[in-house]
């Protein structure tokens, strides 16, 4: 399965197999979110000054030809504040 990796301004990056953030220096898992279908896209992040929070968004649609769980979702998570 091909997975995109997205780095943030902080010290985390995301792998969309189950949307997991890990510390880029230690490899320690910082956060994990379950997807209703396999993530086959590179996640996107954005920061809202009004809330002071960073969000991560991913399209979770799976891929029928490789036998992954399919669906039609766009999922957004609010990340824990450091």
Return the domain count: 1
The low-confidence runs, each spanning 5 or more residues with pLDDT under 50, are: none
- Give a short account of the largest sheet: 4 strands, antiparallel
**What is the CA–CA distance across the termini?**
31 Å
Tally the helices: what do you get? 0
Task: Summarize the helix and strand pattern as letters.
Answer: EEEEEEE
The geometry reads as globular
User: What is the tally of beta strands?
Assistant: 7
Strand line-up in the sheet with most strands: 1-2-3-4
**Beta-strand residue percentage:** 35-45%
Helix proportion range: under 10%
User: Structural class of the secondary structure composition?
Assistant: mainly beta
Mean pLDDT: 77
Rg result: 13 Å
Explain briefly what this protein structure is.
Helix content is 0%, strand content 40%.
Polypeptide structure, described:
The chain is built from no helices and seven strands. The strands form two sheets. It has a four-stranded antiparallel sheet, with no helix packed on it. It has a three-stranded antiparallel sheet with strand order 5-6-7, with no helix packed on it. It has strands at 6-7, 12-15, 20-23, 29-32, 44-48, 53-60, 73-78. It has one domain (6-78). The model has no long low-confidence stretch (mean pLDDT 77). The chain has 82 residues and is mainly beta. Strand 5 (44-48) and strand 6 (53-60) form a beta hairpin.
């Amino acid at each position: 399965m091909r997975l995109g990796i997205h780095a943030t301004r902080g010290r985390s990056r995301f792998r969309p197999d189950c949307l997991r953030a890990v510390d880029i220096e230690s490899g320690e898992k910082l956060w994990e979110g379950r997807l209703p279908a396999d993530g086959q896209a590179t996640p996107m992040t954005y920061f809202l000054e009004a809330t002071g929070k960073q969000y991560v968004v991913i399209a979770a649609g799976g891929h029928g030809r490789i036998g992954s769980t399919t669906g039609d979702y766009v999922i957004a998570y609010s990340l824990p504040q450091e």
